[in-house]
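quick q for whoever's on today - can somebody do inverse folding on this one?? i tried earlier but teh output was garbage lol. tokens:
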């Protein structure tokens, strides 16, 4: 877990810097500077670009994570693997753009309440598809070179800083809305450009593929993994974006704006998981290559409990301050209040399963993750169709919760039956008892007149009440070690 811990810590730090920047832009500026329809436009541009960029990858990122160990040879420039990845991605890019244009009538059909705004910016999605794809390819390549942090810095910190730099001039009427959308689009493509520049600067842009390493059987494996990678990655992205897309189509851009802002708060608990997943996937891939099930089991258990601690604390902190949240983002977004809780609970099920997707996708049963994600995608589409017309944006959140519960149960059963792997001990029960107790106590804290003071006091009490029993009962060895290191450094400094 050494490299995972080191990069997880630094990656998480940068990710939460990005979260702070994202909070400023999403919770403070977006909600006060733009209408709900305009916020919805920003969200739908991102959703469509992510969806089609994932299809454009043609499963190459899955191939990279799973098979790059066989190409790894720094002296031979890793056999020019990056060039091979770019060739595959270029083919996929052409297909994705053609598909996006082909589906234009369907995408723009029956525009609702302000969704006509999207028709004016329909083609802005195309450059976003291109550079989202390039970022995905370059970021995955850096990850298999054991540098997951660089992509995090560019995506979470620099991109969000640029978005912030775009929004503020809009408030002072330096730019109109149209100019702001253009600059916003440029800010979104920046991570892909920066990763490309980094590869050039570090002399890692080796794009001449050495095909001699690929024999007939290896090529078949690549195609097979790529196919299931397409299904898995596209389904995975579909489940992340389809709710926003369907809310827009059924309810309009205004509802999409409300949903996207409240959804943001529910996903804050996932930040550590995303960082750990990026880093651990490479280590797990190497462990499967060496058939080291003990390493995989260790990562599985430790990731589950450590991420659950952080995720549960964050959710309690957010929901314990829920009234303060709407002091910040304004009551225009109050219809999405329970979206925050429901999405937060849904994401807790993901967190509890730790790095399970990476264990499956890097095993010989990698194709099963594609099946599970396809089931997940079908579940979330069907449940959204059924629930959004009845319950609106709350229905979209419930659809996500139900679908994630089923999806994670399937993964749990599969890993236990195939490998006798399961991440839970009695400590997970104790952890949730601590969480419920701490939240119950937080309800007794008097509401203070100044909401900022209330946030600080309430969050501090929740944090202390939660961390003390977690440390005392040694819920997570890794968390305890980090706490002890922090205290040692503080006392040494003093």
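ok took a stab at it. sequence:
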């Amino acid at each position: 877990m050494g490299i995972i811990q080191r990069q997880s810590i630094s990656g998480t730090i940068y990710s939460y810097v990005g979260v702070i920047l994202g909070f400023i832009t999403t919770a403070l500026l977006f909600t006060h500077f733009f209408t709900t329809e305009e916020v919805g436009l920003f969200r739908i541009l991102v959703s469509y670009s992510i969806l089609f960029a994932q299809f454009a990858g043609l499963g190459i990122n899955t191939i990279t994570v799973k098979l790059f160990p066989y190409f790894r040879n720094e002296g031979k420039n890793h056999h020019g693997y990056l060039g091979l990845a770019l060739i595959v991605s270029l083919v996929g890019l052409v297909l994705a753009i053609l598909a996006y244009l082909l589906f234009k009538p369907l995408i723009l059909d029956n525009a609702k309440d302000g969704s006509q705004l999207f028709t004016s910016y329909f083609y802005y999605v195309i450059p976003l598809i291109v550079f989202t794809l390039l970022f995905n390819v370059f970021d995955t390549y850096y990850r298999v070179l054991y540098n997951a942090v660089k992509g995090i810095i560019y995506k979470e910190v620099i991109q969000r800083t640029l978005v912030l730099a775009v929004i503020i001039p809009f408030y002072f009427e330096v730019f109109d809305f149209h100019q702001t959308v253009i600059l916003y689009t440029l800010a979104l493509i920046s991570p892909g450009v920066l990763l490309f520049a980094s590869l050039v600067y570090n002399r890692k842009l080796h794009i001449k593929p050495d095909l001699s390493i690929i024999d007939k059987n290896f090529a078949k494996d690549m195609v097979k993994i790529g196919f299931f990678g397409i299904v898995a990655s596209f389904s995975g992205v579909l489940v992340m974006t389809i709710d926003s897309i369907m809310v827009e189509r059924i309810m309009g851009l205004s509802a999409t704006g409300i949903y996207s802002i409240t959804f943001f708060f529910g996903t804050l608990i996932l930040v550590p998981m995303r960082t750990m997943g990026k880093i651990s996937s490479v280590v797990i891939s190497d462990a499967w290559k060496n058939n080291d099930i003990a390493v995989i089991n260790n990562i599985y258990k430790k990731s589950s409990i450590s991420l659950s601690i952080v995720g549960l604390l964050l959710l309690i902190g957010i929901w314990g301050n829920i009234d303060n949240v709407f002091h910040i983002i304004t009551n225009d977004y109050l219809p999405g209040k329970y979206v925050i809780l429901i999405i937060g609970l849904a994401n807790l099920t993901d967190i509890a399963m730790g790095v399970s997707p990476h264990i499956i996708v890097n095993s010989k049963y990698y194709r099963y993750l594609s099946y599970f994600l396809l089931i997940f995608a079908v579940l979330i589409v069907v449940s959204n169709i059924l629930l959004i017309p009845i319950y609106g944006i709350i229905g979209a959140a419930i659809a996500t919760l139900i679908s994630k519960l089923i999806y994670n149960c399937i993964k749990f059963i599969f890993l236990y039956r195939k490998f006798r792997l399961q991440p839970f001990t009695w400590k997970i029960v104790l952890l949730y008892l601590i969480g419920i107790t701490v939240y119950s106590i937080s309800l007794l804290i008097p509401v203070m007149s100044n909401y900022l003071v209330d946030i600080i006091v309430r969050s501090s009490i929740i944090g202390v009440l939660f961390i003390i029993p977690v440390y005392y009962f040694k819920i997570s060895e890794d968390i305890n070690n980090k706490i002890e290191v922090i205290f040692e450094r503080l006392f040494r400094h003093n």
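fwiw The mean pLDDT is 86. also The chain is about 80% helix and 0% strand. so keep that in mind when u check it
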